[in-house]
Amino acid sequence: MYLDHLSLTNFRSYRRLELALSPGPTLLYGANAQGKTNLLEAIYYLATTRSHHAEQDSQLLNWDLGNEEGPLAVGRLVGHVMRDDGDRLLEMRLIQEQQGTQSSFRREALVNRRKVRLMDLLGNLRVVLFLPQDVQMVTGPPSERRRYMDITLCQTDPDYCRTLSRYNKLLEQRNTVLRRIAEEGRGHDLLPIYTEKLAETGGYLFARRASFLAALAREARNIHYEALTEGLETLRLRYLPRLENDESVNGAAGEAQDEWARWLETADPAAAASRFRESLEAARSRDIGRGRTTVGPQRDDWTFLINGRNLGSFGSRGQQRTAVLALKMAESNWMRAETGDTPVLLLDEVVAELDERRRTLILDYVRQSTQAILTSTDPGMFTDSFLQEAQTLHVTGGQIEAGVTVPD
Q1: What does the domain layout of the chain look like in residue ranges?
Q2: Global pTM?
Q3: CB count, 10 Å around CB of 32?
Q4: What is the end-to-end Cα distance of the chain in Å, rounded?
């Protein structure tokens, strides 16, 4: 699959953009703060309905709009995707409405001009995004790593996405019941009902995440060991399912989590649900005391280990960056194996972060993809052979024009 046309209206720095794209590599270059990353963000948003940067979707609307548009401001992202099973026209609308002093915001998704649920947009365009700040996945909070798992799985597995949505709603409802019991002494009759439903959906999430991370870990380990570190370092991705209350990942607690992770890799969802149900029952008194569910997929984590040591605590910046690069390359390979489609690669200032050997490796990898869109402040960091092969576009002030040309 590849994106052959992108249309933006009132998105970030783009008031209006019509951009034709080609298969193969495309290089967007220009000074900082000109709109290169915004364009990658638009494509990522069309694929995932998520922003990698904005805290609120309303922040994606063009910041110069002000009140020019009157009480209704609309941002539109439209992409035409070429696929073996039929072309798709994808659209996301960001609608902000002002009524007196009240402001509301909503999103609409369309596929082939028909409105669909947001989750039904997923999977029509698949992407892998690499950002310099992705090293925060190594050092940041568990929520960032859970978010990565969920976004990646939702691009390939509609059942996972629907189950995750249902789980989150049930979790909120169960927590409401727990607080009611703690504060008012009411709701004991409802708790078993929500516990059962939560166990069923949560068991599926546990099993799917475990098998996903196991497959991704194998791919990333091989790439990291053979291609990126020349056999000097071994990368491991360690899944930490929260089936127990102990928050430690060391000692006996860590060994127990490793055992559960290995068991979940091959467990069917029903077996995982049964085990999760036992955990919920064991945590019942504690959950009531705290007014929230203390075990479950909402508290999962996973870590990077280099030669057996936690990369977030002991790794250098270079080691962290190399591990994330291996992860993203593995993600692309895994997604292709799962779906039969090679995802579009979105690479933001990647080569500036790499030494010459790794730069050559990633550019060779880019050439193997159906479509890759890269950004850079300096096209001089790319070889003439790459520039001859790539579509080059110069970005300045939210405007895009044909870029450098290299003689044959």
Answers
A1: 131-337
A2: 0.91
A3: 8
A4: 28
